[in-house]
Structure formats: structure tokens, C-alpha cells
Amino acid sequence: MTHGNGKLFQDSRGTTRVCSTRFRRGGPCISRLHGGFCASPTRISSAIETVAAHVGGGCRAQRARLQLCTLFGFITFRKMLTRHAWLVALAACMAMTVTATASELRPLLSRVQMMAHEYHSEAQWAAVFTELATVREAAARERRWTDLIDAVHLEASVRGLMRGEWETALDLLENTRARFQDQPVQNLRRIYVLMAELHARQGNEQAITDLMQAFRTSPHYDPVQYPWRGGTGPDDPLVVTRPSATGRDSITLSTMERHRVAAQFAPGRPMLDIAGQNERGQPVRLSDYRGQVVLVDFWVPHFVTWQRNLPALRQTRDRYRARGFTVIGVPLIPNIDHARTQARELGADWTQWRVDR
Asked: How confident is the model at residue 233 (pLDDT cuts 50, 70, 90)?
């Protein structure tokens, strides 16, 4: 932070400074002044209400009041500002307040999170999308690309992850990705990750692979240089700190890789052809049951929910067994003999495989 000389002025970047306090677009950056005396409460109150009136009332005016109360509550002035200085300071505070799109998204995000746990009408969802469109249009008009991408990310999350509108969400994300592909907008990486997650829900592994390749060749690729020490001589080994993650040292690619793997197990995808041995030691494969309805039950003995569901699973197996329904157990503990004994004792009387890992 650069301290001023006790006067109000604007530097070459258009930042308004009052003494050693800097008013920044998006929020104040405050440093403590030495000495001086406080502005009167009447003048502070008048300034706050002036800004609130200029920004248009409602929630935006309330945000202005809160920001200015915080601002004026901690600043001491070396001397009382002149009338002209107050006007310039008010203009800087107005610019700081009017464009707080992040603050506009926060209540929308909170509302969406609450709506996720309850039933809401299409009219209520339409109102949310209308508000999001308004935020996006304002951000685009004022060329605030970071805010625009955050609004797109929220809308696509709602449509894709909460409402199952896969194609609408992916079209919105793809249009945004194409628009900012060659621009240095950092939070575009969030668009890549959300696209990968939506493709994973659909089981589209190839789309995620193509997306990862596009990300590697884009200016948004984010390889990480990990810290290291040592290597100064034969008795000083080189130690490199690196987390155990895939993705060629990119956090974004690592997350997309996780979604790529998850796509292999999405609903509707064919089950992997697992192989193992049955109780008689004979080799078995899941493909041996092709044409039948098979439930593969991965379990551990101490899993209470699994034990609680056993009676229902036995009832379903007995009801549909004659029509080709089969249950195959795969215990997730090393001692397969102990697992088979426990399965019989608990009533899981179907075949238990030792699966090759």
C-alpha cells in the first residue's frame, strides 16, 4: 500500500486516495493514519445517505450504507476534508459500490442452495434464471468478464446438476468457453471443470478426453511448479514436494481426470467386465452373465446401511430369481474366507467372488 501525502488526488491508474486511505473499485483498502481527528457523525451520516440515494435504493443502497459505515468507522483524517474533497470521495465510493456483481450473486447462490432441498414450481425457477440473465447482461455490458463467467457457472450448475437439463447447461458452458478461449480470464478454468462433471454424469468419457486436450493447448493451462530442496552434493538428496495427483501437474486437469474416470461408471454405461474366483476356486467373469439382470453388491461387514438393506435385497432376489435376476457379492476386505463366513451368518446367501485387483 502506498501512503499519500495528506491530500486527495488521483494517480495514473485512476485510484482515488484520501490521505493514506485508498478507495479501490470493488472495495476499500484502509491503512491507519497517525494522529488527526475524526469527522463528525453528522457529516459521516450525510455522506452515507448521499451515496445510498445515488446508487438507487433497495439492496444496493443497503450495501452502500454497510460499506461506507465500515469505511468511515475506521478512518481518521489528518484534517477535515474540504467540500470539494467530499464530493470526489463520494464519487469514488459510488464507483466502488455500483459494480458489486459478486454481492448480487451471493443471495442468488444462497437461494438456489435452499431450493435444492425442497420442491419449487417452474415459475420460481424461471424467476431465478431471469435474475441470473440480468446479472450476466449487466456484466457483459460493463465488460466484467470474471463476473459474467461466475454467473454462467452458477446457472449451468443449476440447470445441469440440479435440474438435469444437460444439453442446455453444456451449450451455455461451451458458448462461454469458446468466447473466452483466447482471453486471459482466470476463472474460465471453472467452466472446463463443470463441463467435465456434466459429461461425466452422462457417461461421455470421450468428450472429457477431448476437453482435457483442448485445455492443455489453451492459455488457461495451469501447470504448477512444486517446491524443492537439496541437490547441492552427493550427500544432499534432491527432494521435490509433489502431491500424488494425475493431470501433468495441473490442478484443473487432475480434477477433469477424476471426472473422466467417473464417466466410466455413470448410470446407463455398461458395467466393467470384472473377473475373479467363486467359492470353488473357478475363474468367473461378469460377461459370463450376459443377458441376465445382475446386481453386483460391493460390501464390507461393518457397513450398517448394507446390513439394514439385506432383508429387502433377499426379498427382491427371491421374487425375481426365476426371471433371471442374480446377485453377486464382492467383499471389500482382504480375507475372503472370513468375508464369506460373515456373509452366510448375516444372510447374504449368494455367491461371493474374490475379485482380481
From this structure: low
**Angle, vertex CA 331, rays to CA 329 and CA 334, nearest 5:** 150
Q: What is the mean pLDDT of residues 253-280?
A: 87
Asked whether the beta carbons of 125 and 114 are under 8 A apart, the reply is no
- The conformational region for residue 267 under phi > 0 = left, psi -120 to 50 = alpha, else beta, is beta
Q: Cα–Cα distance between 100 and 67 in angstroms, integer?
A: 11
> What pLDDT is stored for residue 302 in this prediction?
85
Report pLDDT for 356. 72
What does the block give as the cell for 322?
426365476
Cell reading at 316:
427382491
pTM of the predicted structure, to 2 decimals: 0.57
Q: Cα(first)–Cα(last) distance of the chain, in Å?
A: 57
Question: What are the cell numbers at 192?
Answer: 472446463
The pLDDT value recorded for residue 192 is 96
Long-range contact set of residues 194-198: C-beta below 8 Å, sequence gap at least 24: 194/153, 194/156, 194/157, 194/160, 195/170, 196/255, 196/256, 196/259, 196/260, 197/161, 197/259, 198/156, 198/160, 198/161, 198/166, 198/169, 198/170, 198/173
